Amino acid sequence: MSKEVDSLHTLEKSSFDKPLNGDNDAAGSLSKQYKVISSRDADVTLKFQEEWDSQVPEITPEQEAKLSRKVSWYIVTFTATVNLMLYMDKATLSYAAILGLFEDTNLTTGEYNNANTLFYVGFILGQIPGVYLLQKLPVGRYLTGLTVSWTLIIFLSCTMHNFQGVYAVRFFLGLVEAVVVPILNNTMGQFLTSKEKAAAAPLFYSTCLGVTIPAGFIAYGVIYAENTISGWKIFMIIIGGLTFIMGIFIFFFYPDNPTNVKGFSIEEKIWIIRRVQKSTGSSIEQKYFKKYQAVEALKDPITWLFFGYIFFSQLANNLPYQQNLLFEEMGGISNLDSTLVSVASGGFAVVCCILSWAFMWKFPNTSAFSAIFWTIPSFVGSILAVALPWDNKIGILAALCLASPVFGIPYIIMFSWNSATASGYTKKMVRNATIMIAMGISNLISPQLWRSNDSPRYKNAWIVQIVLSFSAAPFLCFVIWWILKKRNTERLAEMDNSEKVGVIKDEDKEVVVNLATLDLTDLENKTFLYPL
Question: What sections of the protein cross the membrane (predicted)?
């Protein structure tokens, strides 16, 4: 099954209406010429395609432009909103820290860092069962269950009164949120072409970088609220309520794949499947775990280069959470001031995300160099944060605001690129789980870099970030680009005019299909070209 087809011969388009069971010689001939798999191993959209594909005409350029806008508005807006709430929930502890949490729970700085670390312990432990369930369960219902779980946990946060309670809440929040981002990223891959997905990544993830805008304004209002309960509890209740409302929308409207998306006609669903398979060269969804694809994912050096990139870059991930505490230690900056600065910082990050999206839409296949470019502000800001005299508060504040918000953009681009450069549904899921584990391990370490005895300059933490997050990580990004470009060059030289087709074999028939429907990996399918 993993051997590559050496010879692909040209066939007419629209192959789903071409069963070959009536001609044994023809079937035998095709079995020799094309990659042949059983329908069980094919894309889950196969039955839908077999039923409707022959009845749907080719899409016109005008129809495709309209469909692209409709899909982008529906999918990118929906997934980005879920992502926004996810990161608002993650940020609750950071804002609670300036709204009285420390006083009510007697939490120390060390315990606060431990709580952030325990979030990622749960995050790591949730990856393997989470990815397995993602492949087995309907995506929409699975995401609904996860959303309900993390809503309950946010509400339970109001009961925290000591560090043990804080630890428990953060651990279980990490556990249930472990695979939410892979789910959202996977959904975008099911609906968007390679170009659309690469360009949309900064817009999608602008919600996690810009989370300080809505969360900051909510915290601003809570600071001035006159209530008998603590401000951080009010903040938790508001965030939990918003998450609950979002869960209702997920239950009714979140799609499993293009075949059951609400508000789209049969014709539009077929067009979505066709354009995604043609663009990406890979399957849309597969409900059977394929061991050989998992093994291939772990043997592919690209997997570990992405692992290294995510690990190094995420060592800086505690910086946004640490930012409010750094403001306090600088002196002269009130809780209100730090909240407003975080809002401005988030706004700056969103603007940078929009610029990144515009560039990548205008110039496709620039993921690697875009990621390297957007590392520069954090690199410069980190050096300034260490080098400037401590009495230069304005300069340090400016350096902190330069370093903190935009380092997430390269991570955003690389996370999306990681998924786009793997074909084969199981391989893609394993690849995603691998880098999420890298993220989790890195974030176990990240809070511990900010040791209280290094206060107030935290030079060791800044040096680690400068050397690993903002120097070594972009170098790995370049290495990935170089290897994938070399693979593409070799494939283009051998591809000629081969047709991207294969054969799905049932007990009573064989049907010619698009090669993407076969759910082959990128190393099996030599016609697969890596997006750069």
Answer: 71-88, 142-163, 169-188, 200-222, 234-254, 339-359, 371-390, 396-417, 429-450, 462-484
